[in-house]
Amino acid sequence: MDLEKQPPKPVVPAEPRPAARPADALRASDADRDRIADILRDALAEGRLDPEEHSERIDAVYRAKTVGELQPIVGDLPRARKDAEPGAYAHGPGEAEGEAENLIAVFSSTTRKGRWRVGRRTKVFALFGNVEIDLTEAMFEQRVTVIDATTIFGNVEVTVPENITLRGNGNGVFGNFEVRGLEAVHPDAPVVVVNGYSVFGNVEAKPKRGRRVSDLQRRLRKYLG
Predict the structure, then answer these.
(1) With contact defined as beta carbons under 8 Å apart, do 67 and 33 qualify?
(2) What is the pLDDT of residues 185-194, one digit of tens each?
(3) Cα separation, 30 vs 120, whole angstroms
(4) 193 contacts: CB under 8 Å, gap ≥ 6
(5) Can you list the residues of the chain whose pLDDT is less than 50?
(6) How many CB atoms lie within 10 A of CB 75?
(7) Closest Cα to residue 219, out of 194, 188, 184?
(8) SS3 string of 81-101?
(9) Residues 41, 63: Cα–Cα separation, whole Å
(10) Please, which residues bridge with residue 126 across strands?
(11) How far apart are CA 34 and CA 62, in angstroms?
């Protein structure tokens, strides 16, 4: 066979590599939100933000879905230039953040109360049922605790001690969503954020007057190192 007469094989162009995903488009993690919340806390303590501005920005932190949405919240604060650089919050898929605790009540009742360790995030679902979460004697091992509550023809009640910060974000469809906001005097007090969605049901979070976090100072010393 005469190899010189063989037609040349066509050259197959290499497939283009997918463009790298911008760091700003990555989904924000709980650690990302906590870092931004710490910057806002310091700004409040230094007098750079008043309590109302601090509350508005904290609400924006826990509504943010991506890293890019978090960065503008602290863009005018000194620590933001150091701690919130592009890509500073990009985490690989293998980084563990811990599993959320699930509380479910379907045609039943679920209660979490007494002396217990509160996780970073708790997911609550009530369908024709009732869930009660009492944090008045709980131990907070992190500064920010998030409770995501969904109720359909059900009821979710959250009670917190009066010396922490309580915030909420949610709505109801033929139902009720009510969070009685509370701002702690101490800037490093635990923060409980209740996010909720209620359909023909009720989500309510409120402080219990006279009940306080008894060992708050010890845990604050541990948190501050």
Answers:
(1) no
(2) 777 788 999 9
(3) 8
(4) 58, 62, 144, 145, 146, 147, 167, 168, 169
(5) 1, 18, 20, 80-96, 217
(6) 10
(7) 188
(8) HHHCCCCCCCCCCCCCCCCCE
(9) 17
(10) 105, 151
(11) 9
Name every residue whose Cβ is closer than 8 Å to that of residue 85 and which is 6 or more positions away in sequence: none
Question: Is residue 48 within 8 Å of 82, Cβ to Cβ?
Answer: no
Read off the amino acid at residue 207. Answer: P
> Cα(150)–Cα(50) distance, rounded to whole angstroms?
32
Cβ contact 150:130 at 8 Å: no
* pTM for this entry: 0.54
Give the C-alpha separation, 207 to 117, whole Å: 18
User: How many CA atoms, within 13 angstroms, populate the side-chain half-sphere of residue 154?
Assistant: 24
The tokens describing 80, both together, are 């933001």
Residues 6+ apart with CB under 8 A from 73: 36, 40, 57, 60, 61, 64
Q: What is the DSSP letter of 152?
A: E
Residues 193-222 have pLDDT tens digits of: 999 889 999 999 998 876 666 555 455 555
**Distant-in-sequence, close-in-space partners of 121: CB < 8 Å, separation ≥ 6:** 30, 100, 101, 145, 146, 147, 148
Residue whose structure tokens are 């923060």: 191
Question: How, if at all, do strands 144-152 and 155-161 pair?
Answer: unpaired
Separation between Cα atoms, residue 165 and residue 153, nearest integer Å = 28
pLDDT of residue 4: 55
Residue 108 main-chain phi, psi, to 5 deg: -155, -170
Q: What letter represents residue 14's amino acid? A: A
**How many CB atoms are located within 10 Å of the residue 138 CB?**
22
